[in-house]
Design a protein that fits this description.
402 residues, alpha/beta, TIM Barrel, three-stranded mixed beta sheet, 12 helices, 16 strands, globular
């Protein structure tokens, strides 16, 4: 096996702006995101956008501090409200049809994968494991604009590759105490310095994802990320990084009024749906060989959340995305009809020490109820001596399904 060369810090040349989805994203988010924030912060009904200065703006689970800058001229009072959009507008392609997304990449190596192992290779020699999940923050990989440090990712991959195993790779822009990242921030500080709002929800440090500088910076990062890792045969698939912890929900905290908090920054279900579809399309455009998988959560915070969740799942299914279900318990069933039409990956909601499940029950639900051939299990369950037999039987079941 050829030794993997560590990736040093390096700056990429300026990347030409893409047409299609990314130009539409910039246009849409420039037109919308900060208008609702300004209105909430200043107590007005103005429709417009805030021109921020160099510093970002931060609010901690409460009062909103108005950013430096000025409000642009609002629309006339009698202007018709914008029509509700559930997705980004599509530019017409040949024959007047919206442009199709590229085909889904290769989804490799079904089996049992270690989850929440802290990117360690301690268990790489476990014969029951097909591999592990590796999770990184964007802020650690692009400390300065256009300067990328891939070495931690390369080293973590190499350790499992040397044992003949695969990895599932995730990069997140939103960190959380609940995800074990301490009070770290997944979004680089230099992105906030562009004027992106920063939301602190009891330890979850999260960006206003729809702010135009964030959308553009993250889109550029994804292109560099794919240029480095797309087609790497040590990678089973890429978990998309969309919301908190990578999931399709902006904020996974449950002990705050998330809708009230996020509405101050311009959140709407329609805008979030547009953002999720935009980032998902970027992943598909950039990763042409390796499969990209959304971590589909309840996803929305507002009154339209059920309808928009259904629409999002159907959009993923129509476009051929595999989908990952992160709420696996031994009682799980398919969460909707569209899930029956796609390839599914299952991840335990909690370790069995918290859920009260048996590992065998979780494995059966993943395989027979959700029809998954990839199962992500907490490391604490995998290394518990009491589970040794169940781990071996679960791994054998998944291998037979493959």
């Amino acid at each position: 096996m050829t030794a993997r060369r560590p990736g040093p810090l390096r700056a990429l040349p300026a990347r030409p702006r893409r047409e299609g989805v990314r130009r539409l994203a910039a246009r849409r988010f420039a037109a919308g995101g900060r208008a609702a924030v300004a209105a909430a912060a200043l107590g007005t009904a103005l429709l417009g956008s805030v021109a921020l200065g160099a510093g970002g703006c931060s609010v901690s689970s409460g009062a909103v501090t108005a950013p430096r800058g000025r409000l642009r001229r609002p629309l006339p009072r009698n202007a018709a409200p914008a029509r509700r959009r559930t997705s980004l507008p599509a530019e017409a392609g040949p024959g007047g049809h919206p442009p199709a997304l590229p085909p889904e990449g290769r989804l490799a190596a079904p089996g049992l994968y270690e989850f929440a192992g802290g990117n360690s290779a301690t268990d790489a020699g476990n014969p029951d494991l097909a591999g592990t999940t590796l999770t990184f923050d964007w802020s650690a990989l692009e400390p300065s604009p256009g300067v990328y440090d891939w070495q931690p990712v390369e080293q973590a991959i190499a350790a499992w590759e040397a044992a003949g195993k695969k990895v599932i790779l995730r990069v997140s822009a939103g960190s959380s105490l609940a995800w074990g990242d301490g009070a770290g921030d997944g979004t680089p500080a230099w992105v906030y310095a562009l004027g992106v709002w920063r939301v602190d929800d009891d330890g979850s440090l999260l960006p206003a994802y729809w702010d135009r500088p964030f959308v553009e910076a993250y889109s550029t990062f994804l292109a560099a990320y794919a240029a480095r890792f797309d087609g790497d045969r040590a990678i089973a698939f890429i978990e998309m990084g969309i919301g908190e912890g990578g999931e399709t929900l902006p904020d996974t905290q449950s002990d705050t009024d998330r809708l009230a908090l996020w509405s101050r920054y311009g959140y709407s279900d329609a805008g979030w749906l547009a953002y999720v579809e935009t980032v998902s399309s970027d992943y598909r455009e950039d990763f042409r060989t390796t499969a990209v998988v959304p971590l589909v959560d309840s996803s929305f915070l507002g009154g339209d959340r059920r309808r928009d969740y259904t629409e999002l799942v159907r959009w993923y299914a129509r476009n051929g995305f595999p989908m990952q279900y992160d709420g696996l318990t031994e009682e799980s069933t398919l969460p909707g009809r569209a899930w029956a039409t796609v390839t599914t990956i299952s991840e335990q909601r909690d370790p069995t020490s918290m859920s009260g499940d048996r590992l065998a029950g979780d494995c059966r639900a993943a395989r027979h109820a959700l029809h998954s051939r990839w199962l992500l299990v907490y490391r604490s369950d995998l290394v518990d001596p009491a589970n040794a037999g169940e781990v071996a039987r679960c791994a054998a079941m998944l291998r037979q399904a493959a």
